[in-house]
Structure formats: C-alpha cells, structure tokens
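Worked example

This section walks through a single chain of length 410. The input is the sequence exactly as stored; nothing has been trimmed or padded.
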Amino acid sequence: MYPQVLRAVVLTAVLLPAFAQTAPLTLDHALDMAVQRSATARSARSGAQSAAESALAAGQLPDPTLQVGVDNLPVTGSGAFRTTSDSMTMKRIGVSQEWLSAQKREARTAAAAAVADREGVQVHAAAAETRLQAALAYLDAFYATETLKLTTLMEHHAHEELEASKARLSSASGSGQEVLALTSARGMAEDESDDVRQQQAEAAVALQRWVGIRADELATPRLPSLPGQDAYVASHPQVAAARFDVDVAKRAVTVAESERTPNWTWQVSYGQRTGYSDMVSFGVSIPLQVAPAQRQDRETASKLALVDKAEAELAEASRMATAEYLALMSDVERLGQRVDRYQVSVVIPAGQRVQLATAGYASNQVSLLTLFEARHAEVDARRKLLSLQRDLAKAQAKLAFKPLSDGGEQ
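Given that input, the structure is written out below as tokens.
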C-alpha cells in the first residue's frame, strides 16, 4: 500500500505544475500580479513611508546645541595664548535648547501627518492606475484571441471549400472560375488570420508588460459592478488627491499662525577659572518680532491663498471627474445598445443565412462560392460584434477601475 501511495504523491507533484501552467489566467489574478510587480506602486509606497517617517519627527524638539569655548584669552604680553596666565580667562562649556510650545509642535505634527495622508492617496492612485492599465491590456489580449479563433475558423472553411471545389471540378460538376475565386478567398482568409495573429501577439506582449508572464490562455473577463456618479467622483484619484491638498494647505495655515509666538531658547554654561571660583551662566533668548504685519502676517496670508488655490483645484477636479463619469456612462449605455441591436439584426440573420446556404448547397440549389460568402459574412459579423463587446468592456473597466478602491481614506 505504501508504494502505491508514494507513487500517487510523486505523480501528483509532477502533474500539479503542468496543471498550474495550463490553467487560464483570470482577470482578478492578472490585476493582483500587476499591482504586486508595479514599480510605480512601489515608488508611491516608498514616498508614503518617507512622509510617515517625517511626520513622526515633526513634533520633536530641535536638537540641543553644545557650546564650548574660552573667554577673555590674552593675546599679547608674556601670558599670550595661555589659559592660566590671567584670572579673567575662563574655559566654558554649556548647552542651549530651542523650546517649541506644545501647541506649535502639535500644529507641525498635524501638518506632517496631512502630507503623509496625501502620499498615502498616491499609493492607492498608483495601484488603481496599474489595475486599470492591466485590465485594458487583458481585455485587448482576450478579444484579440477570440478574434483569432474566428479568422482561423474562416481559414479552415476556405481550405475545405477550396478542396471541395477542386473535387467538383475534377468531376465536371464545378467550374474553374469557382476554384479561382475560392483560391483567392483562401489567400485572403490566411492573410486576415496573420494580421489578427500579429495583433494578438502585440496584445499578449502588452499584457505581459503588466503581469510579468506570458499567458497562453485567458479566462472570460468578469468585471465588477459599476459605481454610481457620487461614488466615482468621490473616489477619483485626482479628486481624492485634491481633497487632501486642501487639508495640507489648511494645516500649513495653522503652522504659520503658530509662528506669531516666537520660539524661546535657553542656555546654561559652566566656566572654569584658574585660582578663582568657577562660574555658572544661564539665560534665555527671545526673538523680537518687530514687524509682525510685514513678516508673520504675510506668511499666514500666503498660506491662506494656497488654501483658496487648493479648494479651487478640488472644485475643478470634481467637475472633471463628473464629466468623465457621464461620458463613460454614455459610452457604456450606447455600446450596450449597439451590441444588443447588432447581435439581433446582424449576427443572428448572418447565422441563419449560413444555415440556408448550407441547405441550398446540399440540395445543389446554390453554389459553393455562395456558401463561402455566407460563412465569410457571418465571421465578419461576429468579428464586428467582438469589437463592440471589447469597446464596451473597456469602457466598463474605466468606470470600475479608475476610482480608488477605498476612496483614498487611510
């Protein structure tokens, strides 16, 4: 029993990689792979980490300053440049510290945190853009593959019908004109397949640029539900970034207003003299804001103007996102109607025409060339339908993947 179990385990280990390789790549898996390997997303994450580290340091006090020196050192006479020749000479060591109030440190921390939040939005925006571009590449590759299946089928039909026309010619029931027409038709079908095959190869390379692997088979894409207008606008990358820009600008105003209160600096030092008592000195330095209306108030006014600028950009971004949503939704509705109408009024009749031509050819009522033309018309109709379905899927993908997945909230 144990050898049988061992053989089963070994066989499973050998076959699993083959199954994994032949399993079709799904859209969700492709998007996850694209985000994981995206250098743009990695760059955005590094930027967010940098801003987060800066936010942690923003509320700290400045480093203290070590002060070392010699006071009243003689430079002339017999005791020149000697620290022990004169009683007034004193060797000094001290430290000074600039002091920021808790309110000012809190304002700086909040401003740095707002910048970190804005950088966090860039992480989500980079991931959303990567997912969107990967989804568009996936759709192009999938529909190019489906189109290639149709042209390959048409090429197969052309070959079969050419061989049948040659057989009919040899039995004197066909004509040379029919053989020549079907020969030309087969050449055109082969060229169409080569053209679509080239497009499919280009689409596969474009998809590989995002997912990092060559996908031999793609699963039918399943797109998520489409967002409403308010959700789309609120989660649009530019709107979310502009919303955080407003917060950053407002926090900068708070920091500028806190600068109306100057930072005090205290210092203390210890002095050593030869033959006399050592001394301790201490004091406080207070900047004098002699013209706050010309400096501090101007800086605050500058930051307030930036708030108005950020709010105007937010309003403009919201209008742009609204127009973009309405245009994309219009495309989705229009393309959906065209797909339904084209399938009913063109594709289904083309299939029925093939059925009638096949029946007519079987009863010797229509020529082989007529059957080929009917089949070619059906393939052309299905190719046009695939093109419309691809455009519809890409418009839906733009609506579904353009917004941030969580609205940009941290």
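What to look for: The chain has a mean pLDDT of 84.
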